[in-house]
Structure formats: structure tokens, C-alpha cells
Design a protein that fits this description.
The chain has seven helices and seven strands. With 251 residues, the protein is of the alpha/beta class.
Length: 251
């Protein structure tokens, strides 16, 4: 049985990733902040799609003191991990101009989007190295790693950090047989973009991306499934833009 841990797998992009991996018969552990009782339907759905086992763990990725216990619990329940997908992330509660960014929002975004996944990767990688297990790690970044949005600068900075973390882990872990990738979504139809739906409807209609539609969680899920399948086996450190061509430079 091949087991993957997906952070933030209960809804949005993380749910799309879990579903795509369930279809490819991964045993799925996923996390979130919500209580487990709310996740029973999702677990049943993953098993129905083809996951030989599925389990939910309530765990805040920003709490790095909880990571070892999380990995212990996952491995006890579903066996040794073969893959980690760092998907959990947050947007600013309020979008503010960079002249108004607060230290509290900056710290919250860094803690959840960058510091938490960095140290979860470190904890998982130490286990992979100690066990001499070939493994795959995927970070869910964002086009915001390179596209400046002045109304959520702290989000952009956190995702730029994720981009460098991907490079660092890819460079360090290649010799250990561990491949590390980043998927970089554009505008994806989830709760996170709920508050800006009309704005992006308009921008997409005006030509924001060559492929003039919202991305769906499934678009990101299928990209992650391809990476975990090993289809880009000789390309560690690569970034897959899942953005409908939005970041193509056009004239
Ligand atoms: P959603 O807000 O729809 O879902 C976020 C998920 O992350 C939920 O499952 C949530 O769990 C979980 N989560 C949030 N904070 C924590 C935490 N501290 N610890 C554990 N789990 C947490 O977001 P999306 O699905 O849209 O985003 C997923 C990832 O994709 C994020 O990293 C985001 O930055 C990135 N992304 C999204 C884009 C988009 O357009 N939607 C574009 C580019 C990147 P719970 O339900 O328990 O709160």
C-alpha cells in the first residue's frame, strides 16, 4: 500500500488532490483544523473512488510542535509514507494595501503557508532519509510567488518563500532518492477565492488568462497525481503552472 499525507485535504484544492490520488489507489491521510466528525463523508468518498484506506487527522500545520505526533499517528494508521503534499494554506483575512499590512497578518501567513510546511517537510524528510525510502514531496505554491498583488503582499511573500523551499529541498534530497516539486495554481474555484469571485469573473472575461475559465481543484489534483505517479521522474525541483496560461508573457 502506498500512503500519502495531504495537508488541508478536506476541501478546495486539497480535496481535489485527495480525490485524484484516491482514483490512483493511494491510501490517503489528510489533515485540517476541523473536527474529525465533519470528515466522515469525505473519507467514505475517497474509499469509494479507490483509496484502499483513508484517515483524517485534526492538525494545525502552523503548530510545528505537533508534526512528529502527526507523522507517528499517520504511520501507525496507514503505514510508512511514500509522499507528502503540502497544500494547507491561508489568504489574508482582510486584503490590505502593502502600506497597511499588519504584523499579525504577516506572521499568520508565514506561519501557515511557509514555516509550517517547511518544518513538516523537514520532519518527513528525516524519516524518509532514515528509512532509505524513495519518496515524493509536492508543495502547493501559487502564481503569487512571482506575480505581485499589492493588496496581499504577505501572501505573495509566503509563496515566494515556498518556491525557494522547493528548490532547497529538491537540491538536498535528490541524493536521498526523494523528488520535490511545486505546483503553482492560478485562480482556482474554492472557498479561498469566494470573496473575489466577481472580480475574477470579470478579469477572466477581459482576457486575464488565455484559457478563459476558472481552474478547478481537479486541475491541480491531476497535476499532483502525475507527479506522484513518477511521470516527471528526471525533473526534481520543477514547477508546474496550473494557471490556464495566465503567467505566459504576451504581447
Ligand atoms: P481553501 O481555503 O478552500 O482550503 C484551505 C484548506 O487548508 C482547508 O482544507 C483548511 O482546513 C486547510 N488549512 C488552512 N489552514 C490550516 C492550518 N493552519 N492547518 C491545517 N490545515 C489548514 O483554500 P484552497 O483550496 O483554495 O487553497 C489550497 C492551497 O492552494 C493553499 O496553499 C493556497 O494558498 C493555494 N492556492 C490557492 C489558489 C486559489 O485560487 N484558490 C491559487 C493559488 C494557490 P479547514 O477546512 O480545517 O480549515
Amino acid at each position: 500500500m502506498k500512503t500519502v499525507l495531504v495537508t488541508g485535504g478536506g476541501r478546495g484544492i486539497g480535496a481535489g488532490i485527495c480525490e485524484a490520488l484516491a482514483r490512483e489507489n493511494w491510501a490517503i491521510a489528510f489533515t485540517g483544523r476541523k473536527a474529525g466528525a465533519e470528515m466522515q463523508d469525505r473519507l467514505s468518498a475517497l474509499r469509494a473512488l479507490g483509496a484502499p484506506a483513508a484517515a483524517y487527522f485534526q492538525s494545525d500545520v502552523a503548530d510545528i510542535t505537533a508534526h512528529e505526533a502527526l507523522l507517528d499517528a499517520v504511520e501507525k494508521s496507514l503505514g510508512p509514507l511514500a509522499a507528502l503534499v503540502n497544500n494547507a494554506g491561508v489568504a489574508p483575512t482582510v486584503r490590505l494595501d502593502v502600506l497597511e499590512t499588519t504584523p499579525e497578518s504577516f506572521d499568520r501567513l508565514m506561519g501557515t503557508n511557509l514555516r509550517g510546511p517547511f518544518f513538516l517537510t523537514q520532519a518527513a524528510a528525516r524519516r524518509f532519509v532514515a528509512a532509505k525510502t524513495p519518496a515524493t514531496i509536492v508543495n502547493v505554491g501559487s502564481i503569487s510567488a512571482t506575480v505581485a498583488s499589492v493588496s496581499r503582499g504577505e501572501y505573495c511573500i509566503s509563496k515566494a518563500g515556498v518556491a525557494m523551499a522547493t528548490k532547497l529541498w529538491a537540491a538536498r534530497l535528490a541524493e536521498e532518492g526523494i523528488r520535490v516539486y511545486e505546483v503553482r495554481p492560478g485562480v482556482i474555484h474554492t472557498d479561498m477565492t469566494g470573496a473575489v469571485r466577481e472580480k475574477y469573473d470579470r478579469l477572466l472575461a477581459e482576457g486575464l488568462a488565455p484559457q478563459a475559465r476558472w481552474g478547478e481543484p481537479e486541475d491541480v489534483g491531476r497535476a499532483v497525481a502525475m507527479l506522484l505517479r513518477g511521470d516527471l521522474a528526471y525533473s526534481t525541483g520543477q514547477v508546474l503552472q496550473i494557471d490556464g496560461g495566465m503567467t505566459l508573457q504576451r504581447l
